[in-house]
Amino acid sequence: MATSKRNPRDAVPDLFDAAFLHVRQAAERLGTHPEVLQTLHYPKETLAANLLLRRDDASLATHKAWRCRYNDALGPTKGGIRFHPASNLREVMALALWMTCKCAVVDIPYGGAKGAVCVDPHALSDTELQRLAHAYVHAFARMIGPERDIPAPDVATDARTMAWMADEYARGLGRPEPAVITGKPVAYGGLAGRSGATGMGGFLVLRALARRLDLPRKDASVSIIGFGNAGGALADLLHGDGYRIVGLGDSKGAVFAPAGLDLDGVREAKRAHGSVADYTGKGVRRLRSADALVGSDCDLLVLAALQDEVHAGNADEVRARAVLEIANGPVTPDADAILARNGVEVVPDILANAGGVVVSYCEWLQNRSRDAWSGERVQSRLEDTMRAAARRVDDTAQELDASLRQAAYAVALRRLEAAILATSPLPTNGDSPSARPAGAQGAARG
Ligand code: GLU
User: Fold this and answer.
1) What CATH number is associated with residue 155?
2) Number of domains in the chain
3) Do 209 and 342 reside in the same domain of the chain?
4) Is the CB of 228 under 6 A from ligand 1?
5) In a mutational test of the pocket of ligand 1, which residue from 357, 363, 385 has the highest number of ligand atoms less than 8 Å from its CB?
6) CA 233, CA 444: separation in Å to the nearest integer?
7) Is 327 domain-assigned?
8) Is the model's pTM score more than 0.85?
C-alpha cells in the first residue's frame, strides 16, 4: 500500500519537491526576498527515531518514526501525527511545509510541523497501538511542548491516540499538560467540534467562494474520494445544504448513483462490511476503486483521501467544474496545470482543509487558559476565520490574476516573509521588508 500514486508522467516525482514548487512559484510572482525562500526551503528541525514496540505475543517490532518542525516564524509549530505503512521522511517534510503555509493562510499564530510512524495500524491491537503512541511521545518528548510543538491527529490517528500521547507526556512531566496536544477526547480537554472541523472548514470555504466557483445553487452533484472523518462530515454538510452526493469512495472501492446516495445506508454498509463499496441499492453502481471517481460525472469533486489522487495520468479525465482538496496534496503540480488549462477551479488544501487546525487552535487556547469554550464560541471562531481566509485568498487571486492555489501561497508567503524578515539584520522599512533584489522592487505586496 503506497501513499503516493504519482504517475510516471508527473515531472516532479518527489512529494517534498512538489510541495516546495508552489512556494517557489508564489515567491517568483511576489518577488519574495531570496533569503526568505532559502529559509523556507529547509525544515528548522527534524528528528528520526526507531520505535521499539513490544507486541502482544511478546515479540519485538521496530517502526521508523519522524517529527519535523518546519518553520516557527509565526509561532509554535503545529501539525498532526499519522500512522501509515508508507510514511517516509520526504512526505513528513512536505506535510510540515503545508502546515506552515496552512497556518499562515488562515492567520493563526502557529508555525508548521508534522510527524509520522511507518506502521500499518490495522495490524495492531488496541494495547499495541497504545504502547506505540507512548513510544512516540517518549522518543520525541524533547521536541514537542505546549509552547514549542503541538501535535494533533492525522491519517489513522484520532482522539484516543491523542489522549494516550497527552497522558504519556504528563507522566514524563509529572503533571497534566493538556495544551501539548490537540484533538483530544472531550472528556480529556478536547472540543466536541474537533473531529468534524476539517469537513466544516471545507464547507465554509465552499460557501465563501460560491460566486467564484459558480456551482449550481441547488442539486449540484458531488463525488467524494475519502469517507473518513473529514470526507464523512463534509458529505453530511453538503447533503444538508441541498447538494446531491453521487459518488463515494474509500481505500477499498467506490459507489456511484446519479440520483444520489443514501449517506446513512452507505455508512451502515461500511460499518458492517468494511467499505462504502459494499453498499447496494437501486441505481447504485459499484466501481473497482475510488480512483474511478476522478472522472465521474459531477459538478464538484472532493478529494478527501491521500496525496497524489489526481496526477498527470488522470487529470484530463476530471469532468467536475471544481475540485475541493480536503486531503493534503491530492493534486500533483502537473495535474494542477492540466486542470487549470481545462478550466477546472481547484480550492487548495492549505485553505480548504485548514478547519482542523483552526479548531485545534481553539482547543489549545482553552487548555492554556484552563477555561471551557462553548460549542457556539468554537463554531463562530471557525466561521470567522475560514470566511476571512477564503475572502483574502479570493481577493489576492484577483489582484495577482492567479489561481486560488497561487493566491493562497501568496497570502501565506507574505505573512511568512514579514515574520522572517522582522528578525533579520537586513534593513527594513517599518513592517514591510524593503531589502529585496533588484527587479523585485515593484512586485505586488500587501
Ligand atoms: N492533521 C491536520 C491537518 O493536516 C490537523 C493538524 C492540527 O490540528 O494541528 O491539518
Assistant:
1) 3.40.50.10860
2) 2
3) yes
4) no
5) 357
6) 38
7) yes
8) yes
